[in-house]
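FW: tagging you since you asked about this chain on Friday. Here's the raw sequence from the shared folder, copied in full. Didn't touch anything.
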Amino acid sequence: MSDLVVITGASRGIGRATARAFAKRGCRLALLGRKSSGQEEAAVECRALGVEAKDYPFELTDANSYERVVAALLEEQGTPRVVVHNAGEIVLGPLVHETTVEDWDRVLAVNLRAPFLLSRALLPAMLKAARGRFVHVSSISATLGSPGAAAYSASKWGLIGLAKSLADELRGTGLQSLAILPGSTDTDMLARTSFAPKMSPEHVAELLVFYGLDAPDAIQGSAVEMFG
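HL: got it, structure written out here
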């Protein structure tokens, strides 16, 4: 049976390009995220490439949904080989003293809390299989920071910390935890900023596939920056 890849936020941009890239390598796909026509279309595109692809619509920030969704995923498709934490949220404009608590919490819930929840839910099965990789899609904004985007930068820096802490916990288990930090990528999210695109979602997807399937185990804990 071919490898199973779990991807969050596959409805568009980097996530959708990544789903197609893994499908072209013959991987089965489980696409997780809020219900949307984009995620459904991504699953159809992957099936058209000759692989099994299933859409699991749910709210990634809802901790109470993970037991149900992950149980269904494991029963229907088995244990993942690769988990790509890609789903992202951004709020642009307000300075720190103008940012609402609701906006701050929403960005951190999608960008940082959701990867923690999904990793926690999948780890027992993946540790039993003693094989697999978690790949966290952070951002170059984690290291640079931007005025009016403190919640986004903080969440993406926190995601690197999660990836590296998980990497240390997983040493000797057969599992790896990695991160990538893309720069300006031509996505809907970037279009809401003043930055010009320097690379395509497909460029980022190439690195994600390499990280997930081809990179040596010794890359454990790596966090690679991509500037285009």
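FW: The chain has a mean pLDDT of 94.
HL: agreed, and Residues 112 and 158 are 7 Å apart (CA to CA).
FW: great, closing this out.
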